[in-house]
Amino acid sequence: MDSVKVRVKDLDVYYQKFQALHKVNVDIEENKVTALIGPSGCGKSTFLRSLNRLNELIEGTITEGMVIIDGVNIYDYGTDVVQLRKKVGIVFQKPSAFPMSIYENVAYGPRIHGINKKIELDEIVERSLRQANLWDEVKDRLKSSALRLSGGQQQRLVIARVLSVNPEIILMDEPASALDPISTAKLEDLIAELKGNYTIVIVTHNMQQAARVSDYTAFFLNGHLIEFQPTARLFVNPRDKRTEDYITGRFG
Is the pTM of this model over 0.85? Predict the structure, then answer.
């Protein structure tokens, strides 16, 4: 039986005077992949970043409404934002490997959270790299620079870095847009494996990718959530003509 991991209620986000999201209401299921689609500037990434309060890093941002994760509104006064972002990790569009060794990239998060014993870090690094389907490719060069990895490998390394602090939710903002088709296929396979243990929300401009990897799809337009359905249903029988026009390429 599906269970709700994230419940969003009447979410409004403003960048100073510009309203980027308008009264968004949606339930995100646990251990499922939810894809966010829509044209550029429609509010997808703003919505994604609202799930771990990253929008607050942009000066002048105002957020109203509720984002409830496991029954707790993350916008309540007193929320520990560091712990929130440990629980809700994010992978960005461009692979962002740190200029340090492969090992230290993955150990970075656990060190910040107080884990310093080598045997413990070794276990975390191996486990995280295995989960990210990267261990076999890098196990003999853990001390070499992460910047020597290919783009696809760096993106999987970033995912390993997110996994190293035991998140429950993984946000992905167009994670394959800078990757070649082979790396993209590996990333999509990885997403399919990870959803058994994590709740994943992914922004993508690629309709085929949304259809391949997601269980649910949300279509955003001009800051409004136009439609949210199981992916198979939305792509075959969308309720709203604007959704149909977008996924068939007739939009605009």
Answer: yes
User: Residue 18 CB: number of other CB atoms within 10 A?
Assistant: 9
Residue 147: closest CA among 210, 93, 204, 94: 94
Residue ranges in the chain whose pLDDT is less than 50: 1
Q: What is the pLDDT of residue 85?
A: 94
For 5, 132, 177, 206, 224, the CA distances from 39, given in Å and listed in that order, are 26, 29, 15, 11, 12
Cβ-based neighbour number of residue 140 at 10 Å: 8
Q: Which of 90, 94, 51, 93 is nearest to 74 (CA)?
A: 51
Both tokens of 161, joined, read 């870095």
Q: pLDDT of 121-172, one tens digit each? A: 999 999 999 999 999 999 999 999 999 999 999 999 999 999 999 999 999 9
Its CATH architecture, for the domain 29-49+81-247, is 3-Layer(aba) Sandwich (3.40)
Tokens of 198: 């994590």
Among residues 154, 124, 121, 122, the alpha carbon closest in space to that of 137 is found at 154
Going from the C-alpha of 51 to that of each of 15, 85, 180, 187, 219, the distances in angstroms are 16, 9, 28, 22, 17
pLDDT of residue 1: 41
